[in-house]
Amino acid sequence: MLDLPIADASVGVLACWYVLHHLPDADVARALGEFVRVLRPGGVLLIGGHVGESSTLKTEGYGGSPMRVFVNLRPADYWAAQVRSLGLTIEAHTVFDPDDEHPSHALFARVPVSPSQPV
């Protein structure tokens, strides 16, 4: 997701679900920038996943399988700010189970269309 082999402005919809929390802080803007690069005007971005404020190393997967993956939880507002900073318009953003131990979010945004651009 840091170097998508996809032409600029060629994708109508891009969904990234429960993945971005594995990126280190230094790579978040690059990944989101790649998403925006490949989306055409009027294109839709859907991201979602775990939210919070912690960073941990996960060493055991579901079912007890060994693994080594970082989980970098960030607040839902962080994701909204990142998406807005890239010029997208947020059409919907919600946090699921905000009082739960493991809340999640879904953010639906769109690449703006200028009056002279076809959709």
Task: Outline the structure in words.
By secondary structure, this protein is of the alpha+beta class. The protein has two helices and six strands, in the order E-H-E-E-E-H-E-E. The protein has a four-stranded mixed sheet. The chain has a two-stranded antiparallel ribbon with strand order 3-4. The longest helix has 14 residues, at 25-38.
Give the secondary structure arrangement, pairings included.
Blueprint: E1 11-17, H1 25-38, E2 39-50, E3 54-60, E4 66-73, H2 76-85, E5 89-96, E6 104-110
* CA distance, first residue to last residue: 24 Å
Unreliable runs, pLDDT <50, ≥5 residues? none
Helix content: 10-25%
Based on CA inertia axes, which overall geometry fits?
Answer: globular
Number of E-state strands: 6
Can you write the helix and strand succession as a string? EHEEEHEE
* Main sheet strand line-up: 1-2-6-5
Q: What is the radius of gyration?
A: 15 Å
* Largest sheet, strands/sense/barrel: 4 strands, mixed
Instruction: Please work out how many helical segments DSSP would assign.
Output: 2
Look at the helices and sheets and give the structural class. Answer: alpha+beta
- Our estimate of the beta-strand percent is 35-45%
What is the average per-residue confidence, as pLDDT, rounded to a whole number?
95
Tags for this model:
119 residues; 41% strand; four-stranded mixed sheet; alpha+beta; 2 helices; two-stranded antiparallel sheet
